[in-house]
């Protein structure tokens, strides 16, 4: 596929501030960036667009120094740029504000802004802490931090502890931290995900002041109305490649959507299964977190696979966590016609709910323990390290064999397995328990190669064929259309449309995912 670039606007006289040419990045089983291109001018807001998995985050992590490219080159002001680490990227003038904030929660706002020292205006790497004159530097740091917050229009003090601030204030703190350095290129990854309208307006004012001083801002967002308001140009990535570069003043949202999803998508090959019938097993009347989640009317029948589609921050993970026991959420739901007790993961597990979380390493596994102990953790009545290993091995042996988990022995640490085999172990712990009635899957194939994905979904379909109700959240729309019986689209915390993937083209569902419009939805 050859990128199609809008060349209607005249070329700028000055060379770009930042150029990324032919960037290639491979992961096992995945080509995340396939000769991707990005060119950003000084003093512009350049929006980076694309569906989940298009390569946006990978490209920005290469720019920041978190990943090393397998091919291509980068130039900053015409000079070669290849930071070996995030700190090297920061020293070169690249500042990235990630959606997953990397603040230190037990420090104050001012301490986070000038971490490593407190001489405002100097690079963070050049700010060593010293004991002499500490009180004076602390006052200077607080004064400088207060001024940065004032520019942002923040209404919280620089002396506040980050942990005690609401999420929106923490996001503003992360943005403020980028302003304290000498960044020439500032990357903002979904900055509006946690901001209200007033906070976002303040951020836009700061962005405009930054570009007026010659900084370049790379703005990543799925919200096209924001893109059209704040952006000068946009680069669209699709399948790891640059699909187009657009002058936003001359471009419509529909043109951007077409570039993001492609104009020649074909229906995926489905694995056909009999349509589940009968009364719902799980009924979600409402799951609500003020300002974050408001989902209602989702039903899952025994043997049914219901997909949850949506962009990052749409609410899929939040919904699954709410059903499994996130105490922040107010949930009204029924299991087999009876009220489901919520807010307690242990109660949810006893009722027959099982959650395979998005992060298997951080939330799904105990990496230092054996394969057998991890697979038996939901079945043993006490911590797995307090039960005999032979018991765990005996309980899990048939399940691990049935799932095809490749491991040297039951005693091998699970952290030594491949990503695909680790994911199978997470699934094995619920199968071993033997009481699962509703399986909640959150991005189950993330990081898996094609073969491992196929193995995983075969097991999910087998569980569904045995009567388990499955609620499946995935950023890979192709996987949902291939495996789900019904697909709900979530957009900005709400379920806005339901589709039958047997009869609905994938590009129609993708359009709803990106825009929030429910054209062609199932009644």
From TrEMBL:
PANTHER family: CARBOHYDRATE TRANSPORT ATP-BINDING PROTEIN MG119-RELATED (PTHR43790), GALACTOFURANOSE TRANSPORTER ATP-BINDING PROTEIN YTFR (PTHR43790:SF9). Residues 18-264, 276-517 form the ABC transporter domain. Pfam families: ABC_tran. SUPFAM superfamilies: P-loop containing nucleoside triphosphate hydrolases. Keywords: ATP-binding, Nucleotide-binding, Repeat, Transport. It comes from the Bacteria. This is Monosaccharide ABC transporter ATP-binding protein (CUT2 family). InterPro entries: AAA+_ATPase, ABC_carbohydrate_import_ATPase, ABC_transporter-like_ATP-bd, ABC_transporter-like_CS, P-loop_NTPase. SMART domains: AAA (SM00382). GO terms for molecular function: ATP binding; ATP hydrolysis activity.
